[in-house]
Every structure is written in C-alpha cells, then in structure tokens.
Specification:
Number of strands: 24
Number of helices: 11
Strand content: 25-35%
Mean pLDDT: 92
Pfam family, one: Orn_Arg_deC_N
Largest sheet: 8 strands, mixed
CATH superfamily of the largest domain: Alanine racemase
Oligomer: single chain
CATH class of the largest domain: Alpha Beta
GO biological process, one term: lysine biosynthetic process via diaminopimelate
CATH architecture of the largest domain: Alpha-Beta Barrel
Low-confidence stretches: 4-9
Structural class: alpha/beta
Helix content: 25-40%
Shape: elongated
CATH topology of the largest domain: TIM Barrel
Keywords: Decarboxylase, Lyase, Pyridoxal phosphate
GO molecular function: diaminopimelate decarboxylase activity
Protein name: Pyridoxal-dependent decarboxylase, exosortase A system-associated
Distance between the termini: 35 Å
Length: about 400
C-alpha cells in the first residue's frame, strides 16, 4: 500500500501509569472523578496540537489548513483549534454559532451542506462567512436574502466532481450525489452567478473521506486541480480560493495502516507548480476533520455487571451505541469490526479472557466489543474505546431510551 506504514496499537498513543491509561497526563480513575460520572468522552489537547504541527511540517506552505467542525463540534475543542488552523468549515447554523464564538474571523469560515434553511442562510449572509452553494436554487435563495438584508453574500460553488476518491470510507463525489453541483453544470451556474449581486470566492471540490492510501489521495488531488483549472475559465474571473477537500483517514481496525504524512505532503508539493502556473492568484485549502481529532479522544464507560450466558462472558456497561454509534458498527460499517478497546484501569492486567462488551440498551445492536481478548474485568472497571475523538457523541442517537448524556472534557 503506497505511502503507508504499519499502525501501532492506538493504546500506545497514551501513557500508562499505575495500571491506568493517562490522557493529558491524568490517570483515568482521576479523570472519571473529574467528569463526575460515566460515561464520558475526553480529548487530549496536546495530541490535537501535535497532529496540526505534523501537518504543518509536511504540507506545502502554500496550502491553508481548515478544520471541519462536524468531526467534533465540542466548543472547547473548536476554541483550541481556532489558534492552530487557518479556518473552519461548518455544516449547520449551530456549528456556525460555535465557530463565530471563537477568535476565527468570519471570512475564514465556510458553510457547506445540502438543505440549508432560510434562517441558516440568513445567519450566514449576516455573519460574512463564505457559503458553499450546493445547488442553483440555493444560489437564487442566497441572492434574494442578500437583497433583503442589503448585504452582498460571499459564495463559493461546491462541485460534485466527475471522479471519486478511490478506496475511501465514504465517497462524497462522483456519480449522482445530493452534495454539490455536478461539474458539467457549473459553467451554466457561473454564468447565472455573474448576473446576481454575489461575491464569488471560489470552488470547493470534495471527492471522499477516510482514505488510508496516499496514492489515491494524490490522484484525487491532481484531478481536483485539473477540474478547477477547467472551471475557472467559466468564472470570468480568477478563483480566490480552491478548497481541495481532505480525505486523510485514520486507522480503526486490525490490519489497517496509518498514512505516512511525508508521502502525502510530497505528493502535494509535486502539485504546487501546476497550481501556481494555472491558478496563480488562488489560495489552496485542505479541509480536515477526523484526521485532526479522532486519535486524540477516548470514550469511557463503567462495567455495571459481569455475566455469563451459555459459556460467553458479557461485560454490561453504562455506555453504548446511544453515545458512540460508530463504535457499535452502526455508523456505516458494512461488516462490523471492533474499534480498539481496553480496560482502562487494568492496562497491564496479566490475566486475560475473551469477552463481549455491551451497553444497557434493549437491542442486540448495543455492542462495543464483540469477542475481544481483554484483561479480566468486573463491576466498577472502566472500559475505554479508542479512536473516539471524531464522530462520537454528536453522531449518536443520544435520546434513544432516554439515558443520561455523557460528559465531555478537553484536558
């Protein structure tokens, strides 16, 4: 697999002290006391900062780094990233409010997503952020709101490309999609845009996410640049910005390999001359969410009961799919695989056994670990799910069965 290296067990990204996993230098049992409850999520600010620093080291200086808030919209996390990245992308009015409550200038915030309400669009126009238009009809709505508010909206066109990111976990471009305007329709939309009182910013071309192949990313990025070069002729003006999307993935499951950032960065360096020649006045943006925060977070729940059923051991916990849908396998997995899981207060436990970790919900889907070898545990022990910094709490059905919400901490 080009540009990849074997991934170490995610547990090794965190220190262990007194048999306890440590996050931000704090032992897990103390973190549980600080949270005042289980379950809870905890995110390590030092790991987030380190990931951004690694990207800065390898990415070309010409490329701006933006954070997609949808990955983890916890206000404290977003506030922390406001001082590290060059911009934010939001996907709802709620996320827009979180972004605007930081030091990030509104002009460095973009608003994407299909089905934006009139209220969301009005807030976006009033804020001065860049609105990534997902359809010709949305463009007309934005122009009408701008006239009503006596504000000239800043807009970009989200393009549904005629290619996709190969080997991606989620294909966001190519084929028929609800996202963006089909590439072949963009010239017509640009012709109409020139007749409206809209301030055209540029293009947003996003072909897929969660790719662990540097060669696939390189191919998609090159195709993105060539598409933007073709489309700028229809704009009648140069592109101020080109958001090339993201797509950098993180490993979750056994056998997966982590991206070698040096290889990813080298591929982007090779494309800079093409961009400078054909898009000389265009700022390039790479937009990442999961890659910045996923490995910096864990989900923690407490064992309530240890039980056996026909020879199988179950650890029944106070957490589950209502808090962490992705770890249960019900957030897009075709064949369910276990996220990395540990007994966080028995990290050096010598006696191990094969168990399944389940939650308190009345459904067999409430499964956090299926037949995993873990240190022997019982009531009161703390189960840790790694790779939980992205698409955790806010991607989960927290209202299901009306259990209390988990806490969140940034340490």
């Amino acid at each position: 697999m080009s540009g990849a290296r074997p991934v170490h067990p995610p547990q090794t990204r965190f220190a262990v002290r007194n048999d306890n996993l440590c996050v931000g230098g704090i032992e897990l049992t103390r973190l549980a006391q600080r949270a005042g409850q289980t379950p809870f999520y905890v995110y390590d600010r030092a790991q987030i900062s380190e990931r951004v620093a690694q990207l800065r080291q390898h990415l070309p200086r010409q490329i701006e780094l933006h954070y997609a808030i949808k990955a983890n919209p916890m206000p404290a996390v977003v506030q922390h990233l406001a001082g590290l990245v060059d911009g934010f992308d939001v996907a709802s009015g709620g996320e827009l409010r979180v972004a605007l409550d930081t030091t990030m200038p509104a002009r460095c915030v973009s608003f994407a997503g299909p089905g934006k309400s009139d209220a969301e669009l009005a807030s976006a126009v009033a804020s001065g952020c860049v609105i990534n238009m997902e359809s010709a009809h949305e463009m007309e709505r934005i122009a009408a709101l701008g006239d009503k508010l006596s504000i000239r909206p800043t807009v970009a066109i989200r393009v549904n490309p005629d290619f996709e990111l190969k080997s991606s976990g989620m294909r966001m471009g190519g084929g028929a999609k609800q996202f963006g305007i089909d590439a072949e329709q963009v010239p017509e939309v640009l012709a109409r845009l020139r007749k409206l009182d809209l301030d055209f910013e540029g293009l947003h071309i996003f072909s897929g996410s969660q790719s662990l192949r540097a060669d696939a990313l390189r191919e998609a990025q090159e195709k993105t640049l060539h598409l933007a070069i073709r489309l700028q002729d229809s704009a009648g003006t140069g592109l101020r910005t080109l958001n090339i999307g993201g797509g950098l993935g993180v490993p979750y499951f056994p056998g997966e390999q982590s991206l070698d950032l040096a290889t990813v960065g080298a591929g982007l360096h090779e494309l800079i001359p093409l961009a400078e020649k054909n898009l000389p006045h265009t700022r390039l943006i790479i937009e990442l969410g999961r890659f910045l925060v996923a490995e910096a977070g864990i989900y923690v729940c407490r064992v309530i009961e240890r039980k056996e059923s026909r020879g199988q051991v179950f650890l029944v916990t106070d957490g589950g799919l209502h808090h962490h849908l992705a770890a249960s396998g019900n957030f897009g997995q075709v064949i369910r695989k276990n996220y990395p899981v540990a007994i966080g207060n028995r990290m050096q436990g010598a006696v191990k056994e094969t168990v399944s970790v389940v939650g308190p919900l009345c459904t067999p889907l409430d499964l956090l670990a299926d037949q995993m070898e873990l240190p022997k545990a019982g009531p009161g022990d703390l189960v840790v799910v790694f790779q939980s910094g992205a698409y955790g709490l806010t991607a989960s059905p927290t209202a299901f069965l009306s259990h209390p919400a988990p806490a969140e901490m940034l340490v």
